[in-house]
Amino acid sequence: MDDSLVFEDWDLIIEDIQNQKCIVIVGPDIIEYDGYPSFFEAVSNELIDNKYISQSFVEEQLFQIKISNPVRAKAEKNDGIRHIAKAMQRVIEQNQTKLDAIAELLKKLPSQLILSLIPEEATFSRILQTPVRYYHKNKTSEKEALPPLSPDSPTVYNILGSLSQSESLVFTYDDLFEYIFSILGDNRLPQELQIALKSAERFIFLGVNFNKWYMHLLLKLLASDKNVLAIDAHIPEASRTFIMNRLSLEMMDYTPSAFLDKLTCNCHGALKSKEDISPKTIVQPINVPVSVNKPNKNTPVRIFLSYAHVDEEFKKELLITLSPLINQSKEIEIWEDRQIVAGQEWGKAITTELQDAELMICLVSRNFLNSKYCIEQEVANAINQQKHVLPVLLKSCAWKDFPFLASRQVIPRDNNSIISFKDQDEAYQSIYEEVKRLVTLIKSERA
Question: pTM score, two decimals?
């Protein structure tokens, strides 16, 4: 198995998931079907000699329903669709244990939205404990409003219909064209879903067959100009080259379950299950061992830098600004998570560095406020450990709605953000002076 995804890529994927900027799309080939290379071929086997099915198109993964009497065409089509739905249900039931295992892995990711190309509802509903919504090509989405998207109660949305409403399914050529016309026309996806798709920065496709031409179209509709990662170990090399070049996506040779296993392994506690992510985290006391290496008056003040990685450029400017205190006077030492080396445990490294720090500097922006890990893990722990916390306002945002920030002196002073300064050098110089003053205070407090 090619382990080509470097540490920094896991880092960005994890951050996008934490910040609800990553959408996972689950396809029917997310598991292996005993004796069959795909879900479609397993279903086709269930329909051998079925009087309603005239042909199965393996490449396109679509069925053609046999119409023997034009007068009864609609009734025969409906009966054929019901037979296909029942065959799909049998294949799913035969592979229920494998699907359950995948659902358990997905449950560990704090995602607010999972798009599914599997028309089955019961597995996700039972294990993720959330109702499953679905797109119906023949009904207007204006009649449907999704609940607010939240990682505490994720929305699973079946984009190709549901077995519970067989007429909503997309598995014949007629269905496919109705679907394409509906999704491009007035019958759009629910507004909440459109907003989530637009704001996402990364899409991860698990078990999706990109050989199908209409999947190319669906990818363009859902994830145009986004970071797209396709997880599939079964696509032939010739098809892989075409797909990667034509659709501008990155492809990895993992099985979906192996990828999810590795993703949760690399998290090392960074991704918490839904029950671990709650507002209580911010106020609950946390028992952390006391460091035995107590600083004296001449020891540099250790600073823990908390920030959203999309604000990387601000972080670099801050480090340059504070370099005299780091390199010349040796007043401070700054630690930030880019210093974690490959193979190190995320959670352990962050916990240790935060424990040893006397000051946390937060680079505050909308991205920072939207990061559950920054707010509910790093800042919460710093406050519970009674560290000094210094917010640096990068851009205008709703920081006053966060009591732990609103109760502290934010810099630059007068609630000005760095980008509000005509001369940003002036803003960074004021930050330098404030940090220098606070470092002096911290040293004076030492026993």
Answer: 0.57
